[in-house]
């Protein structure tokens, strides 16, 4: 029987713990504050922003959104970040990616105070993760590790193949799996014999942004398959990067889309926002 890795349910149980922690923080006069900067109208970002806002409200996290038009200048985005860096009520700052092409993404990420970089994208936090001295970890890989732990799936010694090498997902995922003693292969659009490699994976994490790209013939029987994709198929339906119908019977465990990695990303973000807010108590 294939295990359906239920991110929705796992995220809900993480929320219950967080709620208790937030109540304790509030009793000490600290309300966790999360700022989301959204520039333009990326569809995956729109889903993320909506679901985050809802979760933050449920938990009593102070979630503020700064929306800028698609035409915003780099100076305008940097000014927004600078204001949030200075705001003592804000513990975590997240700039939704991708940014419109006129804006230098790296410059914006580097402008975020690394102590408030709740996404873990600042070079300091990236470096610490690769040193296996993690501070803040990107929410999606963090959420995926939490999901694997929840289902008692141990990655140590296993061959993990990460398909995709973005700063948001692929790279931090590979670092985290390596930190947990997996043997890691990172594959991407230039990889030769791609499916011969994915077929070797005990743990296959797919983050390509290509709808239903991975089918059963690319998967080793018994593999654990993690689908990060938030894509729309030809019919306009939300699907992942994995063809769930064909892959599920082959896998030992698999995440659905929706209800898999997405809710875990949000749970990861909320967990790290609360962790950042806790520092205010000790100051
Ligand atoms: N559920 C969640 O929480 C989240 C979901 N997402 C979703 O995950 C997906 C990936 O996001 P993100 O990492 O930001 O995407 P990017 O577009 O930044 O990166 C995609 C990666 O996949 C590789 N790739 C693309 N096409 C192929 C191919 N045909 N064969 C092999 N490799 C390929 C690219 O290779 P190369 O580097 O060579 O170009 C690149 O490294 C998207 O659907 C996104 O919406 C993203 C973040 C969080
Ligand atoms: N700086 C930054 N950090 C990110 O982590 C980031 C980003 N930018 N840009 C966009 C992508 C995309 N992303 C999603 C997270 C959760 C869902 C999510 O909640 N998914 C639900 C969808 C359910 C529904 O349809 O509402 C699910 O899979 O069940 C979707 C997408 C984070 N990203």
TrEMBL record:
The keyword Lipid metabolism does not apply. Residues 139-280 form the Tetrahydrofolate dehydrogenase/cyclohydrolase NAD(P)-binding domain. Residues 5-119 form the Tetrahydrofolate dehydrogenase/cyclohydrolase catalytic domain. It comes from the Bacteria. InterPro entries: Aminoacid_DH-like_N_sf (IPR046346), NAD(P)-bd_dom_sf (IPR036291), THF_DH/CycHdrlase (IPR000672), THF_DH/CycHdrlase_cat_dom (IPR020630), THF_DH/CycHdrlase_CS (IPR020867), THF_DH/CycHdrlase_NAD-bd_dom (IPR020631). CDD domains: NAD_bind_m-THF_DH_Cyclohyd (cd01080). Pathway: One-carbon metabolism; tetrahydrofolate interconversion. It catalyses: (6R)-5,10-methylene-5,6,7,8-tetrahydrofolate + NADP(+) = (6R)-5,10-methenyltetrahydrofolate + NADPH; (6R)-5,10-methenyltetrahydrofolate + H2O = (6R)-10-formyltetrahydrofolate + H(+). Homodimer. HAMAP family: THF_DHG_CYH. Belongs to the tetrahydrofolate dehydrogenase/cyclohydrolase family. This is Bifunctional protein FolD.
């Amino acid at each position: 029987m294939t295990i359906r890795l239920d991110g929705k349910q796992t995220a809900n149980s993480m929320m219950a713990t967080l709620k208790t922690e937030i109540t304790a923080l509030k009793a000490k006069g600290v309300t966790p504050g999360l700022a989301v900067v959204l520039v333009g109208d990326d569809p995956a970002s729109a889903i993320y922003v909506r679901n985050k806002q809802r979760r933050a409200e449920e938990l009593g996290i102070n979630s503020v959104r700064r929306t800028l038009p698609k035409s915003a200048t780099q100076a305008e985005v940097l000014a927004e970040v600078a204001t949030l860096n200075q705001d003592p009520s804000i513990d975590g700052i997240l700039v939704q990616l991708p940014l419109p092409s006129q804006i230098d993404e790296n410059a914006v990420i580097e402008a975020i105070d690394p102590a408030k970089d709740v996404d873990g994208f600042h070079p300091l936090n990236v470096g610490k993760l690769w040193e296996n001295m993690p501070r803040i970890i990107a929410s999606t890989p963090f959420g995926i590790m939490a999901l694997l732990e929840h289902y008692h799936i141990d990655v140590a010694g296993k061959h993990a193949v990460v398909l995709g090498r973005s700063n948001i997902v692929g790279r931090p995922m590979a670092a985290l799996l390596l930190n947990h003693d997996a043997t890691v292969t990172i594959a991407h659009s230039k990889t030769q014999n791609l499916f011969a490699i994915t077929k070797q994976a005990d743990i296959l994490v797919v983050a390509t942004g290509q709808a239903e790209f991975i089918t059963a013939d690319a998967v080793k029987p018994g593999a654990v398959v993690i689908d990060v994709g938030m894509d729309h198929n030809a019919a306009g339906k939300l699907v992942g990067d994995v063809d769930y119908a064909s892959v599920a019977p082959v896998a030992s465990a698999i995440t659905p889309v929706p209800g898999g990695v997405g809710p875990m990303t949000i749970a990861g973000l909320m967990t790290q926002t609360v962790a950042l807010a806790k520092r205010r108590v000790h100051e």
